[in-house]
Amino acid sequence: MHCLELPIPPLPQLMAVNKVAFKKDWLHYERSFPLYDLIIVHRGVFYITEDDTPYELREHQMIVLEPGKRHYGHKPCPVDSELYYLHFRHGAPLRTVKAEQIQWNSLFPVMTYHDLEPQEHSMYLPKLAELTVSQYEPIMNEMIRLRNHSVLEHMLPLQALLGQLLVMLQKTARSRSFSRSEQVCHSIIDYLYARMDRPFRLDEMAADLNFSVDYLSKCLKKHTGLAPLHYLNHIRIERAVSLLSDPNLTLQQIGEKVGITDYNYFLRLFRKMVGTPPAQYRASLYAYRRNDVSER
Fold it and tell me: Start and end of every HTH araC/xylS-type domain (predicted)?
């Protein structure tokens, strides 16, 4: 399955949504459109060409037509048909990529209260996919209902429903690419989270999961971009950041709670991953909270 990689933020913005019926022999007109056009065939058949690529959509299949490309029906509908369509505005896709090549489990920098800008990342929408009625019909019908009664209180729920629809489509893309190596990757991640507070040995993990060290390392690297110890260090420091808000825990206790018994190593690793030493982070966190309370 091929997916469109769309950069976020910002999130896509809904422009229009509706359900339309077409009689037999209807042919889509030619156009170049400035918005994304998500089309779901609810009943019948739909023929559409994007630039020079023809598509035939059957019942419960969807396609995302891209802005700025030439679209036209290359063949009339052979039967009466019903379509859902949804237009949304967003920047051009960064690329088209196969779902199995996406590192779904890749990690992002540890988030802290210091962050003033959102992290840049991507969402992935299947270019062409088959859905079930239960996946798309309730969301689309509710969006149409709200759109047909355009009042202020419906605008935010409409955008939220668009987000819900896009999440469903991304999950569909991911589910079609769930390989054996990704299953192993999930087992490794679950293992690391469950044993975060214990000393880590790669050979022990290999024995517990019943795979070779090389195979486990290869699977995790393929789907996250990280070796097991690097992944473990990330989730340990992420947990340490959360524990620093507890004034009853010393820094050494926090290090031990996340499985790092070498205090000096904990200090170095925290500073490397967060950007400040844990003591300084804690002090600035408390100062931030005091200022926030005094301003209220």
Answer: 186-284
Which structural domain, as residue segments, surrounds residue 26? 2-117+125-175
DSSP-based three-state secondary structure for 16 = strand
Residue type, position 94, single letter: L
- The DSSP H or E segment spanning 126 is strand 121-126
Query: Within this chain, do residues 220 and 139 fall inside the same structural domain, yes or no?
Result: no
Tell me the pLDDT tens digit for each residue of 222-276: 999 999 999 999 999 999 999 999 989 999 999 999 999 999 999 999 999 999 9
Maximal C-alpha separation, the chain: 74
Q: Which residues contact 151 (CB under 8 A, 6 or more apart)?
A: none
If asked whether residues 106 and 145 sit together in one domain, one would say yes
Count up the domains in the chain and report the number: 2
Residues 40, 1: Cα–Cα separation, whole Å: 17
Domain boundary among 135, 152, 175: 175
Cβ(199)–Cβ(226) under 8 Å?
A: no
pTM of this structure = 0.81
Q: Is 227 helix (H, G, I), strand (E, B) or coil?
A: coil
Dist. CA 236–CA 105, nearest whole Å = 16
